[in-house]
Structure formats: structure tokens, C-alpha cells
Amino acid sequence: MKKIVILISGRGSNMQAILAARLPVTVAAVISNERDAAGLAFAHGHGVATRVVEHRAYPDRAGFEAALTGEIDACAPDLVVLAGFMRILGDDFVRHYAGRLLNIHPSLLPAFTGLHTHRRALEAGVRIHGCTVHFVTPRLDHGPIVIQAAVPVLTGDSEDALAARVLAQEHRIYPQAIRWFCEGRLEITPHETVALNAERAATGALISPTLAP
């Protein structure tokens, strides 16, 4: 059975969704850079080992990431999952876990990389927004895309309302991406895209607003 390590900084709602999905994996540890992260108590309550590597305890990012790498590698995971881990990771760290480091981003990449994605989507007037699970590469929010979910942007939406709609989809697609990885179904192609083995052909399209009859 594959082993994963999950990194969090706060309540870890995606981590909670992953644990609730009861995937055929062993969650070796949940690690946080914040000692008071609420998600640590949730993980501990579900029998998962928890660890803390506080970034403030180190004089620079290199020192922090070296300590974090040591804690992760002690678990010998097949996959490292970023689930609301609010630290930008350096190139050496990312390359160390190349092909086995996943992240979820609250937009339909490559649109709206970085922060404040829901606000920017509303300001841009897009009709469809969503979330993306992708492999992490040194270029921020530009790694090979595994799976995306789209939601409509509704008239009068607030940033919070749109964020909640997207988050519900994050909780659906992140466990699915991890399942595919652990089943050996994901392949990063020479073109830096992801091929899903035995992928079913999709028909139709999500269109928002709905076309009038």
C-alpha cells in the first residue's frame, strides 16, 4: 500500500476530506509549520501521527526546508500532499520530490495563479471558476495538471460564497487525484502534461451561464 504525507498550515479541510475518503493508502503523517494548526488535532483524533516543523524556528528558508525534508523522508512516503500548506517552497525542495508532490489551487489554472483567486475571478467577470490539482514544479502554480473542477460564477456572488462553492469541489477532486496516483494511473509526459491511463472519453461541456433553449 502506498504511503503519503500531508502538509498543512491551518485547519486542513482538504486533509480532512482526504482522510474521510478512506483511500487505499497509509497516511504516514500530517506535518504542519504551525504548532497551533487546528488540523493537527483532527489528524491525531483519527489515529494519524502528527509532527510540527515551525518555519519561525529557522533563520532562513533553506534551514526550514532541510528540517522539513528530514521529517518527510523519515516517513518514506510515495507521495507528499500539500493541503493548505501556506509556505512557498524552494526549488531544491520541489526538485527533491519531483513527480511525487501534489498541490491543490483554488482556480482553473493557468488562470489566476498566486493569491486572492476568488476576488480576482469576480473582478475579471469570468463565468466559470474552479480548482485544480497539479504536480508541483519550481514554477509556482504551473505544474502538470491532474484534475480540475469548474463551478459557475453567479450574479451577485461574494468572494466568500464563491470560495465555498469552489472548496466543496476541492474536497471531491483531491482524494480522486491521490487515488489515481496510488493506483499508478498518472504519467507525466515529455510535454509536462499528465496522461491518465485508461481515461474515459468525455462528452459535452460545462457551459455557464446555461444557454437558452
Strand order, sheet with most strands: 3-2-1-4-5-6-7
CATH class designation of the largest domain: Alpha Beta
Low-confidence stretches: none
Report the end-to-end length measured between terminal Cα atoms.
50 Å
**CATH architecture assignment of the largest domain:** 3-Layer(aba) Sandwich
Rg from alpha-carbon coordinates: 18 Å
Describe the sheet with the most strands.
Answer: 7 strands, mixed
What do we call the CATH topology of the largest domain? Answer: Rossmann fold
- The computed structural class is alpha/beta
The number of domains:
2
Q: What string gives the helices and strands in order?
A: EHEHEHEHEHEEHEE
Looking at CATH, the homologous superfamily of the largest domain is Formyl transferase, N-terminal domain
Task: Give me a quick take on this structure.
With 213 residues, the chain is α/β, with parallel strands linked by helices. The chain folds into two domains: 1-97, Formyl transferase, N-terminal domain (Rossmann fold), CATH 3.40.50; 104-198, Formyl transferase, N-terminal domain (Rossmann fold, 3-Layer(aba) Sandwich). Helices cover 32% and strands 23% of the residues.
